[in-house]
Amino acid sequence: MKKLLMVCLALVMGAGIATAAKPAQKKIVTTVFATDIDCEHCVQKIMNNVPSLGKGIKDVRVDLPKKEVTVVYDASKNNDENIVKGFASLKVKAEPRSVRESGTGK
What is the rounded CA–CA span in Å between residue 96 and residue 78? Predict the structure, then answer.
């Protein structure tokens, strides 16, 4: 009886560990930020300092004529507020304009 109980306990613990080990799915978000950039130097400052915008950044595109920066990032590692702070560290004023979800991925 003790052996049966030990086997059942081991199975339950093993199943718990297996479900806990699954990684969380990434949620990829695209946000367009309205900025105060006005020259190619500003564009280069952003593109050369992408890590300053925070973790989980997948892509950054700058549209100088529209004064917009599009940032694609992993929402489990970053958010719009932190990215705005990252822009501030580069002396760029930014404000989120729109958010689009790109779905989930691994």
Answer: 14
Report pLDDT digits (tens) over 50-67.
999 999 999 999 999 999
Domains of the chain with bracketed CATH = 25-105 (3.30.70.100)
Closest by CA to 104, choosing from 33, 23, 32, 31, is: 23
Within the chain, where are the H helices?
Answer: 2-20, 40-47, 80-89
Which has the closest alpha carbon to 74: 104, 96, 32?
A: 104
pTM: 0.70
CA separation for the pair 34, 99 (Å, rounded)? 12
